[in-house]
Specification:
It contains 5 helices and no strands. The chain has 88 residues and is mainly α.
Length: 88
């Protein structure tokens, strides 16, 4: 019985870790367990990525802009933050 309790509490804690809001990152919706993307995973749409790469290469932009245009990308750091990183 103790083992079953441990498993139940482990599953509850893993669920709450995904659902509860945090300072950094994003939290899932309360129903994320019932979505197809959770169980099957989201496939990358290669055609969409290829179109965005073509679009940015036509404009003559650099690789950073191409990466920023893709899904789940990260914001580019501003120049002040880059200078702080370089100076230490």
């Amino acid at each position: 019985m103790l083992f079953v309790d441990m498993v139940v509490y482990l599953l509850i804690s893993l669920y709450l870790d995904k659902v509860m809001p945090k300072e950094f990152g994003r939290s899932e919706k309360w129903y994320f367990l019932f979505t197809k993307s959770f169980w099957c995973g989201e496939e990358a749409h290669d055609e969409d990525v290829a179109e965005k790469v073509k679009e940015f290469t036509k404009e003559g932009s650099n690789k950073t802009n191409v990466a920023l245009a893709m899904k789940n990308s990260v914001e580019e750091a501003d120049t002040e933050l880059k200078q702080q990183h370089e100076t230490g």
